[in-house]
Amino acid sequence: MRNTAPLFIFVLFILIVSDLLWHIRSKYSRQVGVEPLDTQEERELIRKAISENWCPYWKKQTLDSRHFFWKQKHVSGRSVMYRKKLVSRIIVSEKLKLVYCPIPKAASSTWKYLIRREEGVEDYWNLTSSHSRATSGLKYLIDYPSEEIERILTSPEYLKFTFVRNPYTRMLSCYVDKFQNKDKGSSEYRKFMGHLFGWWDENLFENYSITPEERNLMKKHKFQNKALRGPRPSFSQFIRTVVKQKRDRMNEHWAPQWYICGIDIIPYDFVGKLEHLEDDAQLVLSWIANKSVHLPTSEEIGFPSTQARLLEDVFFDINSMFLIRKAFAPDFKILGYH
Questions:
Q1: In angstroms, rounded to a whole number, what is the distance separating the alpha carbons of residues 61 and 75?
Q2: Closest C-alpha among 112, 106, 105 to residue 128
Q3: How far is it, in rounded angstroms, from Cα 97 to Cα 100?
Q4: How far apart are CA 61 and CA 280, in angstroms?
Q5: pLDDT tens-digit map of 259-301
Q6: Is the separation of the CB atoms in 288 and 118 below 8 Å?
Q7: In the chain, what is the straight-line distance between the N-terminal and C-terminal CA atoms, in Å?
Q8: How does the entry describe its membrane topology (predicted)?
Q9: Taking phi first (over 0 means left), then psi (-120 to 50 degrees means alpha), and beta for anything else, what does residue 182 get?
Q10: Is 68 helix (H, G, I), strand (E, B) or coil?
Q11: The pTM is what?
Protein backbone atom coordinates (compact mmCIF):
# COMPACT_ATOMS: atom_id res chain seq x y z
CA MET A 1 0.00 0.00 0.00
CA ARG A 2 1.41 3.43 -0.99
CA ASN A 3 2.39 5.83 1.77
CA THR A 4 -0.09 8.72 1.53
CA ALA A 5 1.31 10.65 4.47
CA PRO A 6 3.36 13.15 2.37
CA LEU A 7 0.35 13.90 0.17
CA PHE A 8 -1.88 14.37 3.21
CA ILE A 9 0.62 16.74 4.81
CA PHE A 10 0.91 18.75 1.56
CA VAL A 11 -2.87 19.09 1.21
CA LEU A 12 -3.17 20.10 4.87
CA PHE A 13 -0.46 22.75 4.37
CA ILE A 14 -2.31 24.22 1.36
CA LEU A 15 -5.57 24.39 3.31
CA ILE A 16 -3.94 26.12 6.27
CA VAL A 17 -2.21 28.71 4.07
CA SER A 18 -5.41 29.38 2.10
CA ASP A 19 -7.39 29.84 5.29
CA LEU A 20 -4.76 32.21 6.66
CA LEU A 21 -4.78 34.32 3.48
CA TRP A 22 -8.57 34.46 3.51
CA HIS A 23 -8.59 35.76 7.09
CA ILE A 24 -5.97 38.40 6.32
CA ARG A 25 -7.96 39.57 3.28
CA SER A 26 -11.21 39.69 5.24
CA LYS A 27 -9.58 41.59 8.09
CA TYR A 28 -8.21 44.20 5.69
CA SER A 29 -11.59 44.55 3.97
CA ARG A 30 -13.32 45.17 7.30
CA GLN A 31 -10.72 47.76 8.25
CA VAL A 32 -11.22 49.87 5.15
CA GLY A 33 -14.97 49.31 5.12
CA VAL A 34 -15.34 47.60 1.75
CA GLU A 35 -15.72 44.14 0.37
CA PRO A 36 -12.70 42.32 -1.12
CA LEU A 37 -11.82 43.60 -4.58
CA ASP A 38 -13.11 41.65 -7.56
CA THR A 39 -11.36 42.68 -10.75
CA GLN A 40 -7.75 43.20 -11.75
CA GLU A 41 -8.54 46.77 -12.81
CA GLU A 42 -9.87 47.60 -9.36
CA ARG A 43 -6.86 45.99 -7.72
CA GLU A 44 -4.53 48.06 -9.87
CA LEU A 45 -6.36 51.27 -8.96
CA ILE A 46 -6.19 50.52 -5.26
CA ARG A 47 -2.54 49.48 -5.55
CA LYS A 48 -1.69 52.80 -7.13
CA ALA A 49 -3.64 54.67 -4.49
CA ILE A 50 -2.14 52.83 -1.53
CA SER A 51 1.37 53.10 -2.98
CA GLU A 52 1.04 56.89 -2.75
CA ASN A 53 -0.21 56.67 0.85
CA TRP A 54 -3.62 57.91 -0.23
CA CYS A 55 -6.95 56.85 1.27
CA PRO A 56 -9.24 56.00 -1.67
CA TYR A 57 -12.39 55.32 0.34
CA TRP A 58 -13.97 58.74 0.63
CA LYS A 59 -15.75 59.50 3.87
CA LYS A 60 -18.01 62.44 4.47
CA GLN A 61 -16.05 65.20 6.16
CA THR A 62 -17.52 67.54 8.73
CA LEU A 63 -16.62 71.17 9.17
CA ASP A 64 -15.08 70.38 12.57
CA SER A 65 -12.75 67.66 11.27
CA ARG A 66 -11.43 68.89 7.96
CA HIS A 67 -9.25 66.16 6.54
CA PHE A 68 -7.35 65.96 3.29
CA PHE A 69 -6.78 62.56 1.77
CA TRP A 70 -3.46 63.04 0.01
CA LYS A 71 -0.11 62.81 1.81
CA GLN A 72 2.05 64.98 -0.38
CA LYS A 73 4.22 62.88 -2.69
CA HIS A 74 6.01 63.52 -5.96
CA VAL A 75 3.72 64.11 -8.93
CA SER A 76 5.14 64.14 -12.43
CA GLY A 77 3.78 66.95 -14.58
CA ARG A 78 5.00 65.10 -17.65
CA SER A 79 2.96 61.98 -16.81
CA VAL A 80 -0.14 64.09 -16.22
CA MET A 81 0.33 65.81 -19.59
CA TYR A 82 -0.04 62.45 -21.34
CA ARG A 83 -3.71 62.46 -20.33
CA LYS A 84 -4.80 65.15 -22.79
CA LYS A 85 -8.51 64.95 -22.03
CA LEU A 86 -7.78 65.12 -18.32
CA VAL A 87 -5.56 68.23 -18.40
CA SER A 88 -8.06 69.85 -20.80
CA ARG A 89 -10.79 69.31 -18.20
CA ILE A 90 -9.19 70.48 -14.96
CA ILE A 91 -9.77 74.17 -14.17
CA VAL A 92 -7.11 76.29 -12.48
CA SER A 93 -8.12 79.48 -10.66
CA GLU A 94 -5.01 81.45 -9.82
CA LYS A 95 -7.10 84.09 -8.07
CA LEU A 96 -8.90 81.66 -5.76
CA LYS A 97 -6.00 79.19 -5.61
CA LEU A 98 -8.29 76.35 -6.65
CA VAL A 99 -7.76 73.37 -8.93
CA TYR A 100 -11.14 71.89 -9.83
CA CYS A 101 -12.13 68.95 -11.98
CA PRO A 102 -15.77 69.19 -13.12
CA ILE A 103 -17.77 65.96 -13.27
CA PRO A 104 -21.00 66.33 -15.27
CA LYS A 105 -24.17 65.67 -13.27
CA ALA A 106 -22.29 66.31 -9.99
CA ALA A 107 -22.78 70.06 -9.45
CA SER A 108 -20.24 70.96 -12.13
CA SER A 109 -22.37 73.86 -13.43
CA THR A 110 -22.58 75.23 -9.90
CA TRP A 111 -18.83 75.27 -9.37
CA LYS A 112 -18.10 76.64 -12.85
CA TYR A 113 -20.59 79.44 -12.24
CA LEU A 114 -18.94 80.29 -8.91
CA ILE A 115 -15.36 80.19 -10.22
CA ARG A 116 -16.18 82.23 -13.33
CA ARG A 117 -18.04 84.79 -11.22
CA GLU A 118 -15.15 85.19 -8.77
CA GLU A 119 -12.61 85.30 -11.60
CA GLY A 120 -14.50 88.27 -13.04
CA VAL A 121 -15.63 86.59 -16.27
CA GLU A 122 -18.12 88.98 -17.88
CA ASP A 123 -20.73 86.38 -18.90
CA TYR A 124 -20.24 84.11 -15.88
CA TRP A 125 -23.96 83.39 -15.90
CA ASN A 126 -23.84 81.85 -19.41
CA LEU A 127 -23.79 78.08 -18.92
CA THR A 128 -23.18 77.37 -22.60
CA SER A 129 -19.98 79.40 -22.47
CA SER A 130 -18.92 77.83 -19.19
CA HIS A 131 -18.96 74.31 -20.65
CA SER A 132 -16.52 75.11 -23.44
CA ARG A 133 -12.82 75.59 -22.75
CA ALA A 134 -12.60 78.00 -25.66
CA THR A 135 -15.32 80.34 -24.32
CA SER A 136 -15.24 79.80 -20.55
CA GLY A 137 -12.69 82.53 -19.88
CA LEU A 138 -10.87 80.20 -17.48
CA LYS A 139 -7.45 78.60 -17.42
CA TYR A 140 -6.92 74.85 -17.52
CA LEU A 141 -4.01 72.58 -16.68
CA ILE A 142 -3.30 72.10 -20.37
CA ASP A 143 -2.51 75.83 -20.61
CA TYR A 144 0.60 75.32 -18.46
CA PRO A 145 3.94 73.64 -19.23
CA SER A 146 4.62 70.32 -17.52
CA GLU A 147 6.92 71.91 -14.91
CA GLU A 148 4.23 74.38 -13.88
CA ILE A 149 1.60 71.62 -13.79
CA GLU A 150 3.81 69.72 -11.39
CA ARG A 151 4.26 72.80 -9.24
CA ILE A 152 0.52 73.53 -9.10
CA LEU A 153 -0.41 69.95 -8.24
CA THR A 154 2.14 69.71 -5.45
CA SER A 155 1.89 73.22 -4.06
CA PRO A 156 0.09 73.65 -0.72
CA GLU A 157 -1.05 77.03 -2.05
CA TYR A 158 -3.70 75.33 -4.21
CA LEU A 159 -6.73 73.37 -3.04
CA LYS A 160 -7.32 70.51 -5.49
CA PHE A 161 -10.86 69.19 -5.37
CA THR A 162 -13.76 67.63 -7.20
CA PHE A 163 -17.32 66.56 -6.44
CA VAL A 164 -18.72 63.11 -7.20
CA ARG A 165 -22.13 61.48 -7.22
CA ASN A 166 -23.72 58.11 -6.59
CA PRO A 167 -23.32 56.25 -9.92
CA TYR A 168 -26.95 55.12 -9.87
CA THR A 169 -28.50 58.57 -9.60
CA ARG A 170 -25.84 60.10 -11.86
CA MET A 171 -26.80 57.74 -14.68
CA LEU A 172 -30.50 58.39 -14.13
CA SER A 173 -29.99 62.17 -14.04
CA CYS A 174 -28.03 61.98 -17.28
CA TYR A 175 -30.78 59.96 -18.97
CA VAL A 176 -33.59 62.23 -17.81
CA ASP A 177 -31.72 65.41 -18.77
CA LYS A 178 -30.27 64.35 -22.13
CA PHE A 179 -32.74 61.81 -23.49
CA GLN A 180 -36.11 62.36 -21.83
CA ASN A 181 -36.36 66.12 -21.34
CA LYS A 182 -34.58 67.31 -24.50
CA ASP A 183 -36.62 68.25 -27.57
CA LYS A 184 -36.18 65.47 -30.13
CA GLY A 185 -35.63 68.04 -32.84
CA SER A 186 -32.84 69.80 -30.98
CA SER A 187 -29.23 69.54 -32.03
CA GLU A 188 -28.27 68.62 -28.46
CA TYR A 189 -30.59 65.60 -28.53
CA ARG A 190 -29.04 64.52 -31.84
CA LYS A 191 -25.58 64.94 -30.37
CA PHE A 192 -26.24 62.74 -27.36
CA MET A 193 -28.04 60.14 -29.46
CA GLY A 194 -24.94 60.07 -31.64
CA HIS A 195 -22.66 59.64 -28.63
CA LEU A 196 -24.87 56.88 -27.29
CA PHE A 197 -25.12 54.86 -30.50
CA GLY A 198 -21.68 55.68 -31.87
CA TRP A 199 -22.38 57.80 -34.95
CA TRP A 200 -21.13 61.15 -33.76
CA ASP A 201 -17.53 62.15 -34.36
CA GLU A 202 -16.51 64.40 -31.44
CA ASN A 203 -13.32 65.46 -33.18
CA LEU A 204 -15.13 66.54 -36.33
CA PHE A 205 -18.02 68.44 -34.79
CA GLU A 206 -17.33 70.88 -31.98
CA ASN A 207 -20.74 72.50 -31.82
CA TYR A 208 -24.36 71.50 -32.17
CA SER A 209 -25.02 72.90 -35.65
CA ILE A 210 -25.58 70.40 -38.46
CA THR A 211 -22.97 70.70 -41.20
CA PRO A 212 -22.79 69.04 -44.64
CA GLU A 213 -19.89 66.89 -43.43
CA GLU A 214 -21.91 65.74 -40.44
CA ARG A 215 -24.90 64.92 -42.61
CA ASN A 216 -22.78 62.84 -44.98
CA LEU A 217 -21.19 61.01 -42.06
CA MET A 218 -24.50 60.21 -40.44
CA LYS A 219 -25.92 58.85 -43.72
CA LYS A 220 -23.38 56.05 -43.53
CA HIS A 221 -25.19 54.61 -40.53
CA LYS A 222 -28.26 52.69 -41.58
CA PHE A 223 -30.09 53.03 -38.29
CA GLN A 224 -29.32 56.70 -37.59
CA ASN A 225 -32.33 58.38 -39.22
CA LYS A 226 -34.64 55.67 -37.93
CA ALA A 227 -33.29 56.15 -34.41
CA LEU A 228 -33.91 59.90 -34.48
CA ARG A 229 -37.42 59.54 -35.92
CA GLY A 230 -38.34 56.64 -33.67
CA PRO A 231 -39.21 56.61 -29.97
CA ARG A 232 -36.76 57.84 -27.39
CA PRO A 233 -34.44 55.16 -25.98
CA SER A 234 -35.77 53.65 -22.78
CA PHE A 235 -33.70 53.87 -19.62
CA SER A 236 -32.90 50.17 -19.77
CA GLN A 237 -31.80 50.53 -23.43
CA PHE A 238 -29.65 53.50 -22.45
CA ILE A 239 -27.93 51.47 -19.72
CA ARG A 240 -27.45 48.38 -21.92
CA THR A 241 -25.83 50.53 -24.60
CA VAL A 242 -23.59 52.52 -22.24
CA VAL A 243 -22.10 49.50 -20.48
CA LYS A 244 -20.89 48.11 -23.81
CA GLN A 245 -18.82 51.21 -24.55
CA LYS A 246 -15.13 51.55 -23.79
CA ARG A 247 -14.54 54.13 -21.11
CA ASP A 248 -12.28 56.30 -23.29
CA ARG A 249 -15.07 56.51 -25.90
CA MET A 250 -17.86 57.35 -23.46
CA ASN A 251 -19.47 60.75 -23.34
CA GLU A 252 -18.31 62.63 -20.25
CA HIS A 253 -21.84 62.73 -18.85
CA TRP A 254 -21.85 58.98 -18.24
CA ALA A 255 -18.13 58.09 -18.26
CA PRO A 256 -16.62 56.71 -15.01
CA GLN A 257 -15.93 59.50 -12.57
CA TRP A 258 -12.58 58.17 -11.36
CA TYR A 259 -11.40 58.04 -14.97
CA ILE A 260 -12.47 61.43 -16.33
CA CYS A 261 -10.98 63.24 -13.33
CA GLY A 262 -7.86 61.09 -13.01
CA ILE A 263 -8.38 60.09 -9.41
CA ASP A 264 -5.60 57.54 -9.98
CA ILE A 265 -3.05 60.25 -10.81
CA ILE A 266 -4.17 63.69 -9.54
CA PRO A 267 -3.38 64.35 -5.84
CA TYR A 268 -6.78 65.68 -4.80
CA ASP A 269 -6.98 67.33 -1.41
CA PHE A 270 -10.71 66.87 -1.14
CA VAL A 271 -13.45 64.94 -2.90
CA GLY A 272 -16.91 66.08 -1.92
CA LYS A 273 -20.20 64.34 -2.56
CA LEU A 274 -23.23 65.80 -4.25
CA GLU A 275 -25.40 64.09 -1.64
CA HIS A 276 -23.81 66.36 1.00
CA LEU A 277 -23.24 69.36 -1.24
CA GLU A 278 -24.11 72.12 1.23
CA ASP A 279 -21.89 70.78 4.01
CA ASP A 280 -19.02 69.62 1.80
CA ALA A 281 -19.05 72.86 -0.18
CA GLN A 282 -18.28 74.79 3.00
CA LEU A 283 -14.90 73.09 3.13
CA VAL A 284 -14.06 74.53 -0.26
CA LEU A 285 -15.64 77.93 0.39
CA SER A 286 -13.63 78.25 3.61
CA TRP A 287 -10.50 78.08 1.47
CA ILE A 288 -11.52 81.22 -0.40
CA ALA A 289 -10.41 84.38 1.39
CA ASN A 290 -13.52 86.34 0.36
CA LYS A 291 -16.02 85.53 3.11
CA SER A 292 -18.93 86.88 1.06
CA VAL A 293 -18.62 84.05 -1.48
CA HIS A 294 -21.59 81.71 -1.39
CA LEU A 295 -22.54 78.60 -3.30
CA PRO A 296 -25.02 79.57 -6.04
CA THR A 297 -28.40 77.86 -6.03
CA SER A 298 -29.92 76.05 -8.99
CA GLU A 299 -32.29 79.01 -9.37
CA GLU A 300 -29.36 81.42 -9.62
CA ILE A 301 -27.61 79.47 -12.35
CA GLY A 302 -30.86 78.62 -14.16
CA PHE A 303 -30.23 74.89 -14.17
CA PRO A 304 -33.08 73.06 -12.42
CA SER A 305 -32.47 69.67 -10.85
CA THR A 306 -33.67 66.54 -12.66
CA GLN A 307 -34.94 65.22 -9.30
CA ALA A 308 -33.36 61.86 -10.09
CA ARG A 309 -33.64 60.67 -6.49
CA LEU A 310 -37.42 60.92 -6.72
CA LEU A 311 -37.54 58.92 -9.96
CA GLU A 312 -35.52 55.88 -8.91
CA ASP A 313 -38.57 53.67 -8.35
CA VAL A 314 -39.95 54.61 -11.76
CA PHE A 315 -36.88 53.80 -13.86
CA PHE A 316 -34.72 51.29 -12.05
CA ASP A 317 -35.11 47.54 -12.20
CA ILE A 318 -32.83 44.76 -10.94
CA ASN A 319 -31.13 44.26 -14.30
CA SER A 320 -30.32 47.95 -14.80
CA MET A 321 -28.89 48.23 -11.29
CA PHE A 322 -26.79 45.11 -11.83
CA LEU A 323 -25.35 46.42 -15.10
CA ILE A 324 -24.46 49.79 -13.57
CA ARG A 325 -22.93 48.16 -10.52
CA LYS A 326 -20.78 45.89 -12.66
CA ALA A 327 -19.69 48.43 -15.28
CA PHE A 328 -18.95 51.19 -12.76
CA ALA A 329 -17.59 49.03 -9.96
CA PRO A 330 -14.43 51.17 -9.49
CA ASP A 331 -16.61 54.28 -8.94
CA PHE A 332 -18.63 52.48 -6.28
CA LYS A 333 -15.60 51.19 -4.41
CA ILE A 334 -13.12 54.03 -4.80
CA LEU A 335 -15.67 56.78 -4.13
CA GLY A 336 -17.33 54.94 -1.26
CA TYR A 337 -20.83 54.27 -2.60
CA HIS A 338 -22.88 51.16 -1.95
A1: 25
A2: 112
A3: 10
A4: 7
A5: 999 988 898 989 999 999 999 998 888 888 666 788 898 888 8
A6: yes
A7: 56
A8: Single-pass type II membrane protein
A9: beta
A10: coil
A11: 0.72
Instruction: Give, in degrees to the nearest 5, the angle at Cα 41 between 39 and 46.
Output: 100
Q: Would you place residue 305 in the very low, low, confident or very high pLDDT band (cuts 50, 70, 90)?
A: confident
Contact (CB, 8 A) for 196 and 139? no
- Alpha carbon distances (Å) from 166 to 59, 101, 148: 13, 17, 33
Where residue 311 falls among pLDDT bands split at 50, 70, 90? confident
Q: Kindly indicate the confidence band of residue 109, based on its pLDDT and cuts at 50, 70 and 90.
A: very high
The full set of domain ranges for the chain reads 47-166+256-308, 170-249
Nearest to 333 by CA among 29, 70, 106: 29
Predicted pLDDT at 56: 38
Strands 98-101 and 139-140: unpaired
Distance CA 260, CA 75 (A): 18
What residues form DSSP beta bridges with 273?
164
Instruction: Give the residue from 304, 284, 305, 278 showing the smallest Cα distance to 118.
Output: 284
The string of DSSP letters for 264-298 reads TTS--SEEEEGGGHHHHHHHHHTTSS-TT--PPPH
What is the distance between the alpha carbons of residues 306 and 244, in angstroms, rounded to a whole number?
Answer: 25
Give Cα 207 to chain centroid, integer Å.
23
Q: Is the pLDDT of residue 1 over 60?
A: no
